[in-house]
Design brief:
- By secondary structure, the chain is α+β, with helices and mostly antiparallel strands.
- The protein has 2 domains: 22-165, Electron Transport, Fmn-binding Protein, Chain A (Pnp Oxidase, Chain A, Roll); 173-247, PNP-oxidase-like (Split barrel-like).
- It contains 8 helices and 11 strands.
- The protein has helices at 22-32, 70-77, 115-125, 162-165, 173-177, 179-189, 191-197, 238-247, and strands spanning 35-42, 45-52, 54-55, 61-66, 80-86, 98-107, 138-151, 157-160, 209-214, 217-222, 225-230.
- The strands form 2 sheets. Strands 1, 2, 3, 4, 5, 6, 7 and 8 form an 8-stranded antiparallel β-sheet that branches.
- The longest helix is centred in the first third of the chain and has 11 residues, at 22-32.
- It is globular.
- The termini are far apart.
Length: 250
């Protein structure tokens, strides 16, 4: 049986004896999810709602919210919030992995740094939101993470620090800047490789599209299904990413 890791932080041990990594499991669940439960404060009392989610390149949660929504009004008064991500397993729902992220959910102004990246990545994950993303009463939000709590089965209840969940993007500026054109190239020239790496042969009927890249991995979608290809070492440029795929070409 795995030895549980009770507390994770900068420099702490994140692996159990069966190679389970709480940090990796949490990052992967957040990256793969399309929805989460958002908890805000309404006059000091908790208020829960369902929201669509995506991530910035470093793994920070990003949301697109209407100013008319109760949770947006709550955040205008108190930015403290939490997001619950769940695997939505069949059968007993309590057997599935889930992680709660807590922090400050901050509204991004029109001149916020990297707002174009946030917008592009959110709409790639949530294309239906393009219908209203430009409305004046909608805004993007990014969570400044304080801590997280993972429940992944018996003996795997773990507290995590922001450094356990967020990845370093310094040195990967070119990759982030070129993301849109890189994804077009990948979907045009490496579709079979992406499908094979996602676990679907070319004749399976599933059409996997790359929708996001960051130094740690490549995000994919096929309809309502999501997948992620993790890199074994950090990928900091478009050339490194395309080279990684070329070595795995089918």
């Amino acid at each position: 049986m795995a030895l549980p890791v009770r507390k994770l932080g900068l420099g702490s041990q994140t692996m159990t004896q069966d190679n389970f990594s709480a940090a990796d499991e949490s990052r992967r669940l957040v990256r793969l999810s399309r929805t989460a439960a958002l908890a805000t404060l309404r006059g000091g009392a908790p208020y829960a709602s369902l929201v669509t989610v995506a991530t910035d390149p470093d793994g920070s949660p990003i949301l697109l919210l209407s100013d008319l929504a109760v949770h947006s009004r709550n955040l205008a008064a108190d930015v403290r919030a939490s997001l619950l991500y769940d695997t939505h397993v069949d059968g007993d729902p309590l057997t599935g992995t889930r992680v709660t992220l807590s922090g400050r959910l901050e509204r991004l102004s029109g001149d916020a740094a990297n707002l174009d990246v946030t917008r592009r990545r959110f709409l790639a994950r949530q294309p239906d939101a393009a219908l209203y993303a430009g409305f004046s009463d909608f805004a993007f939000y990014r969570m400044a993470l304080d801590d997280a709590h993972l429940v992944a089965g018996f003996g795997r209840i773990v507290d995590l620090a922001p450094s356990d969940l967020l990845i370093e993007t310094a040195g990967a500026e070119a990759l982030i800047t070129e993301e849109e054109s890189l994804l077009e190239t990948i979907n045009r020239d490496h579709a079979q490789t992406v499908a094979a790496l996602a676990g679907n042969p070319a004749d399976s009927g599933a059409v996997w599209n790359a929708i996001g890249c960051d130094p740690a991995g490549l995000d994919l979608v096929a309809g309502n299904r999501t997948a992620r290809l993790d890199f074994d070492t950090p990928v900091l440029s478009g050339d490194m990413l395309l080279g990684w795929l070329e070595k795995r070409r089918t």
